[in-house]
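sorry for the late reply, my laptop died twice this morning and i had to redo everyting from scratch. anyway the thing you sent over, i finally got around to it. pasting the sequence first so we're on the same page, its 132 residues, then the predicted structure underneath. double check i copied it right bc i was rushing
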Amino acid sequence: MSEQELPPWLKEQLARLQQLQQNLQAIMMQKQQVELEISETERALEELKKTTSDDAVYKLAGPLLVKSDKDNLLKELEEKKELSSTRTVVLGKQESRVKENLKEVENKINQMMHMAQSGSSQSGSNKFNQPS
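ok and here's the structure:
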């Protein structure tokens, strides 16, 4: 069956399915980036905690390394980690919602296709009429 033979209702549902799949992929990529950021932040915290108060510490500011205070850096990194963790939770919830929507659309497509096929075998009419 070519794309032109598909009924409008099916084209619409398939387009919605494709959009949801793209949304899910984008969310999963964002979540992966945030998780990587958390792991980098944790490594930085571990290293920073190993330093003594006499050690010079630096932070990256664009293309520069700037001398900084250990306590301020610890506080910044802990806040960054907390914000990233919150963002991961939010992205996880979005991922769950999109997955649920994907299942609903897939079920709807399957149900409509089944109804269209069973309707055509009974009536002998165009099998691509939208089911009622």
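Residues 70-123 form the longest helix (54 residues).
thats about all i looked at so far, will dig more tmrw
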